[in-house]
TrEMBL record, chains A, B:
Pfam families per the UniProt record, alphabetical: GST_C_7, GST_N_3
Domain GST N-terminal, residue spans: 8-84
Entry keyword annotation includes Transferase: yes
Name this polypeptide is given: Glutathione S-transferase
Organism: Bradyrhizobium lablabi
GO terms for MF: glutathione transferase activity; maleylacetoacetate isomerase activity
PANTHER family referenced in this protein's UniProt entry, alphabetically: MALEYLACETOACETATE ISOMERASE
Entry-linked InterPro entries: Glutathione-S-Trfase_C_sf (IPR036282), Glutathione_S-Trfase (IPR040079), Glutathione_S-Trfase_N (IPR004045), GST_UstS-like_C (IPR054416), Thioredoxin-like_sf (IPR036249)
Keyword field: Transferase
CDD domains (alphabetical): GST_C_etherase_LigE (cd03202), GST_N_etherase_LigE (cd03038)
Listed GO biological process terms: glutathione metabolic process; L-phenylalanine catabolic process
């Protein structure tokens, strides 16, 4: 069995970013599975077209290909049921569906304008041009303008984490005593930011900061060992 | 076995409100349990003081008393494990902890300024005075001012439901194919609003509206049969 994973990179193939690929990396590690990385850049649409996707992550498992981090998490849970559960039961899986959307909106979407201007310098020229064009259209403003506002806009991002912050007062992980896929959903965003941007998303006194430290140390420090900025 | 539940009411003892009491009502029904209602008003602190609480719901189960809706849900799950599960496993319970905070902040907190001005007319004079004083301090403005802004502020409330709205595109309930405690967390807020206010929180085309309809019909229409305004 050799798993392969298309992962987003820029000029440095050893520096995978993408919050969604990191969700999958953590999920694979949780299952005790390793995957051979296939570095992939934004404009290499043809490389993944055979797998009916325009975006990564795409997981290859023998003859099977699965695109989209949520679909991959479900595939791993169903295909490798004897390994540690990502969801802790069917109730957890169902409720994680909303957690995944919350992570997309409040976490990934919330930090996007804060770190987006730091991303092009990590990309090849053709990808940087593609990235700037598509992301400025999404933002409705130049990347540099979003960055100029970030010392102020980080406050609303932090406020948006309040449901998570309160949760971490009574349990170490969103998944309870140990991390599960709910944690990886959120952590994927923070690891994305750590890889591409020196911007301080969290105050050190924030319980979410301590939680991120724990996730950086999980799986023998897998995420911390991946190249990134100090957090 | 006779369960008893302290529930918040105003002048009409047949019209329980409180989003938190409704979470418990739904949880009890999910477990197939019934509880004798003990009507309770805001200023009747002495009645529940013996149970180490200043707020409702408070559940009495023989010699045991449990305060706080989240604690009650956990108590019911642990004490009645052979009845339908509220969480669908330990993963679901852990992840629901954050859902509960999200429900408190985005749902109950989000609708609070939209419906708060409609509440005093349901209360006895002594409770209405207590309510106005404590809630205006929380809002930082007169109740009527919050109400005057609500046609505009409802938009940000609706936007805050986006993670839930997207989830309901692929499953009927937050709990999956059938409702579980994740649904009751959110529904408690909507039922609170329905009991006390004619204000339209949701557009009819919203998937959250259809979800609320399904919850109103659950348990043989238990919530819909309780007095309230049309939604």
């Amino acid at each position: 069995m050799t798993l392969k994973l298309f992962e987003l990179v820029g000029t440095d193939e050893q520096r995978p970013f993408s919050p969604f690929c990191w969700r999958t990396r953590m999920a694979l590690a949780h299952k005790g599975l390793s995957a051979q990385s296939i570095p992939w850049c934004f404009t290499e649409k043809q490389a993944i077209a055979p797998h009916q996707s325009e975006k990564v992550p795409v997981l290859l498992d023998g003859e099977t290909s699965v695109a989209d981090s949520w679909a991959i998490a479900n595939y791993l849970e169903d295909t490798y049921p004897d390994r540690p559960s990502l969801f802790g039961g069917e109730g957890g899986r169902a409720i994680c569906r909303m957690m995944n959307w919350w992570g997309d909106i409040a976490v990934v979407g919330g930090m996007f304008p804060l770190i987006v201007a730091d991303i092009p310098s990590h990309l090849k020229p053709v990808d940087a041009a593609y990235f700037r064009k598509t992301r400025e259209a999404r933002l409705g403003k130049p990347l540099e303008q979003a960055a100029a506002e970030r010392d102020k806009s980080v406050e609303s991002f932090r406020k948006g984490l309040e449901p998570m912050r309160l949760t971490l007062k009574t349990q170490d992980y969103l998944g309870g005593d140990a991390p599960n896929y709910a944690d990886y959903i959120v952590f994927g965003g923070f690891q994305w930011a750590r890889v591409v941007s020196p911007f301080k998303l969290l105050a050190e006194a924030d319980p979410v900061y301590a939680w991120r430290e724990r996730l950086l140390d999980t799986f023998d420090g897998m995420a911390r060992k991946s190249p990134g900025f100090p957090v």
